[in-house]
């Protein structure tokens, strides 16, 4: 501090002392200006004092200048134009030293103004003892105090780092539930300290991986002792940071009871998710010589199957390996040591014996096959040959029946139903429709088994995208040609008129349903196209238009958004996807039923190939033509 500043400070204190300002006896002189708790300076800083809060606080007997006589520049009046924050270390040196090492202070030194100061937690003038139930630093109010910053809102520092949203997760945890009920459970300061709050990356932090067991052990003493002596705890003691600690299995703030279905240690999640994070990691297994596929081998056992079915008594990982005292198979005290494994199995199987205990393990033979492996291969071949033979046999019968059906169709009296042009147009529609369906759904579901199979044979994402766009152009081109045919040819205009919806279609619908329910003696007579074919045609028109428009938006989003709002891209994506599901489902359920599955048509209507419809294939609901 410079000499002029020192003299200025001394002069100010002397002046204040002579005038009685700021002293206990002259408190009202300061309050003459600062009696409004909401008073703000010209810069927007709060300069008002709540006299009642000050009187109720632990600093009620202090003078204003005991805290506010800081070095700084001031004008002719006894106020500072610029001054340093109040230095609490004058009285609270130990607490200040601890705070100086904290993440909050380090952030303040980096000009992160959102970091907490003394006043942010303790208040300013009405500071109360932590023992006072009204104090924000009282144990019962700690989560609320810390939650002012670490709440459910985005808290972003000046250098755009997002701070953890901790309070909502704590509130949902078993600790938070206990806190709300007034139980002596863990609160923020129980794990993070009071003033010396250090980030978990520091080895000095009580939340550092190597210190967590001791931190949690403040309440969970027995569990901590078991963990420290476990294979995981010993690995951490050797500096192996890949080994899990408390929060790796139980989460940091959202710590839930084991019986809670959301808990990471719930039986439904323990093997497949929590333990699997390490024990199904190939890199982890290679680095530490862990047995491979241990979770997979567990899942493929009765225990694993029963657990998936919701079996409460099925053995999980911790039933054999213990919850926290997890030991190596080489450790004589371990539950899976050869000397102890029979006793471990006896917890559920009273008649356990050494032979039974060795009948199941995670150990897989390496570079050799065991008896059960050969039996498994035998059955795989047996199933393949047997079922493959069945498929081949039935395929031969189907092809023979298909051939006979075609021969009957050729001999039967028939009339032309589809011209050569219509058959070519229909064939192009088949190719483009299913080409779009396969390539589109492969793009949308790349992890599906059939999509992965396509990738393996070279039909990767880039090729799928190209094929999808090529088929889209072909479909739109075919639609344009079809429009020309409808409007500029005689037969096309005739077909278009026949496809127009009419009131009679509604009455035909109900009459046909009544006929097939046995409530009407005869089927209604239809025109060249019945209501099912008209509905399918106009659905095709609607779907093609909609898929074409949304497809253009998704193909050229950067150009389209020059004229359309940003939401048009996501809306087009949703419409394109669900319209595709609707179209494919309609073809499979509706169209295939009438041209493949209907009695009298099965195994297939030949009209789409020959263009002819048998006289028995009249346009009705029993077996409508293509």
Going by helix content, strand content and strand pairing, the class is mainly alpha
Q: How would you characterize the largest beta sheet?
A: 2 strands, antiparallel
Strand content: under 5%
* General shape: flat
Describe, in plain words, how this protein is organized in 3D.
- The chain has 626 residues and is mainly alpha-helical.
- It contains 32 helices and four strands.
- The strands form two sheets. The protein has a two-stranded antiparallel sheet. A two-stranded antiparallel ribbon has the order 3-4.
- Helix 26 crosses helix 29 (531-555) and helix 29 (531-555) runs antiparallel to helix 31 (567-597).
- It is flat and about 115 Å long.
- Residues 1-27, 71-76 and 618-626 have low confidence and may be disordered.
List keywords for this structure.
disordered N terminus; flat; mainly alpha; two-stranded antiparallel sheet; single chain; 2% strand; 626 residues; 4 strands; Fumarate Reductase Cytochrome B subunit; disordered C terminus; 32 helices
Tell me the layout of helices and strands.
Elements: H1 3-19, H2 27-34, H3 51-56, H4 64-68, E1 72-74, E2 80-83, H5 93-100, H6 103-109, H7 118-122, H8 142-147, H9 167-172, H10 174-180, H11 188-192, H12 212-216, H13 221-228, H14 231-237, H15 246-250, H16 267-279, H17 282-288, H18 294-299, H19 302-308, H20 317-321, H21 341-346, H22 354-357, H23 371-411, E3 414-416, H24 420-444, H25 449-456, H26 461-488, H27 490-499, H28 503-516, H29 531-555, H30 557-560, H31 567-597, H32 607-610, E4 612-614
Antiparallel strand pairs: 1-2, 3-4
């Amino acid at each position: 501090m410079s000499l002029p500043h020192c003299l200025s400070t001394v002069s100010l204190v002397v002046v204040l002392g002579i005038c009685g300002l700021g002293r206990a006896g002259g408190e009202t002189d300061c309050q003459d200006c600062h009696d409004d708790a909401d008073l703000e300076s010209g810069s927007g800083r709060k300069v008002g004092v709540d006299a009642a809060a000050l009187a109720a606080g632990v600093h009620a007997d202090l003078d204003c200048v005991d805290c506010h006589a800081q070095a700084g520049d001031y004008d002719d009046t006894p106020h500072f134009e610029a001054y340093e924050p109040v230095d609490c270390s004058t009285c609270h040196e130990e607490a200040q030293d601890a705070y100086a090492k904290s993440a909050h202070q380090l952030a303040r030194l980096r000009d992160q103004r959102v970091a907490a100061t003394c006043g942010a937690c303790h208040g300013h003038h009405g500071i109360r003892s932590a023992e006072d139930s009204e104090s924000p630093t009282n144990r019962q109010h700690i989560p609320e105090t810390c939650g002012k910053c670490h709440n459910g809102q985005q808290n972003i520092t000046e250098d755009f780092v997002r701070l953890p949203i901790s309070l909502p997760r704590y509130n949902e945890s078993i600790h938070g539930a206990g806190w709300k009920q007034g139980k002596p459970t863990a609160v923020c300061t129980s794990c993070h300290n009071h003033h010396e709050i250090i980030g978990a990356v520091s080895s000095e932090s009580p939340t550092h991986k190597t210190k967590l067991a001791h931190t949690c052990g403040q309440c969970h003493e027995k569990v901590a002792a078991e963990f420290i002596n476990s294979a995981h705890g010993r690995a951490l003691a050797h500096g192996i940071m890949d080994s899990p600690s408390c929060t790796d299995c139980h989460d940091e703030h959202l710590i839930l009871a084991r019986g809670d279905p959301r808990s990471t240690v719930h039986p439904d999640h323990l093997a497949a998710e929590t333990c699997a994070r390490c024990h199904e990691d190939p890199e982890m297994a290679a680095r530490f010589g862990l047995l491979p596929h241990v979770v997979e081998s567990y899942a493929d056992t009765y225990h694993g199957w029963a657990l998936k079915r919701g079996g409460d008594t099925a053995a999980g990982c911790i039933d054999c390996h213990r919850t926290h005292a997890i030991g190596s198979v080489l450790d004589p005290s371990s539950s899976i040591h050869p000397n102890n494994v029979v006793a471990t199995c006896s917890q559920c199987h009273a008649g356990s014996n050494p032979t039974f205990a060795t009948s199941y393990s995670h150990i897989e033979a390496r570079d050799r096959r065991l008896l059960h492996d050969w039996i498994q291969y035998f059955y795989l071949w047996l199933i393949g040959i047997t079922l493959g033979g069945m498929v081949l046999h039935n395929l031969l019968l189907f092809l023979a029946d298909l051939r006979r059906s075609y021969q009957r169709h050729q001999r039967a009296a028939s009339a032309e139903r589809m011209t050569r042009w219509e058959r070519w147009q229909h064939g192009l529609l088949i190719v483009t429709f299913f080409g779009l369906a396969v390539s589109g759904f492969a793009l949308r579901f790349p992890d599906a088994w059939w999509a992965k199979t396509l990738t393996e044979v070279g039909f990767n994402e880039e090729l799928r995208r190209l094929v999808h766009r090529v088929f889209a152009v072909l479909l739109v081109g075919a639609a344009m040609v079809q429009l020309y045919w409808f409007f500029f040819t005689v037969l096309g205009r005739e077909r278009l008129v026949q496809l127009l919806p009419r009131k009679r279609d509604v009455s035909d619908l109900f009459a046909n349903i009544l006929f097939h329910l046995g409530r009407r003696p005869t089927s209604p007579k239809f025109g060249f196209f019945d209501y099912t074919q008209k509905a399918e045609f106009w659905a095709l028109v609607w779907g093609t238009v909609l898929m074409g428009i949304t497809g253009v938006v998704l193909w050229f989003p950067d150009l389209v958004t020059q004229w359309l709002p940003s939401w048009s891209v996501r809306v087009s994506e949703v419409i394109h996807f669900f319209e595709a599901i609707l179209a494919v489902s309609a073809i499979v359920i509706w169209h295939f039923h009438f041209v493949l599955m209907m009695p009298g048509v099965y195994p297939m209507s030949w009209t789409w190939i020959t263009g002819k419809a048998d006289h028995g294939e009249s346009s009705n609901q029993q077996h409508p033509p293509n």
